[in-house]
Predict the structure.
Amino acid sequence: MTPSVPRNGLLSGMILPGLAAALAVPLGLLSPAFRSHFAAPLSPEFQGVFLASVVLMALHKVESFWRGEYDQCPVYVSQAQSPSWQNPRKAVFLAFVPIFIGMLLVAYLAFLGPPWHLIILTVWLAQGAHELHHLAKSLARGRLYPGLVTSVLFVGVMSFGLFPRWHDAVLGARGLAFYGYYALLPCVLLGFYLEDRKWISRAPPAIWNPARS
């Protein structure tokens, strides 16, 4: 039986991509001025960098699965205690169906073309910041957290490959917003670190550090 563990924090619960979507999608639907910033086409180079980020994300999930992140991640181990997830068949349904419907909506928006291609990439950039949690958890726990290697590569491609091209297409001349993005990344890393330190102080050691079980 899984020991009782505290719920995951907001950052681990993917609040960054969630907030990006909650802001970008309604503005994209309601504000012509907002949409006008996202009308630029994607160059072949831009598309290549995006594809590289997708490939790295796939490799990242393989590494995370191989290293057993599902047994150490605050989200997975806390959700496993939820009544909704006690029935494996119900859990599979709840995991698959919302993602399936969500991907259909993303595909529909992509089919609409500009400005939705760059608005969708805005949410994807937030995922790039979210993946800093692997490095933060490694520092917080004093050991390699599952998925660390590919997460670092993914964040690097997103931060230094995708973001500059997104910024130039959406915002143009580089200024405060451009350099502010890079200043924000250490703050995100610190936030993940502090959140995980709080979580592991309350969770059984056997959960967050299997070597001590």
In short: The chain has one domain: 15-202. Residues 15-202 form one domain. The chain has a mean pLDDT of 92.
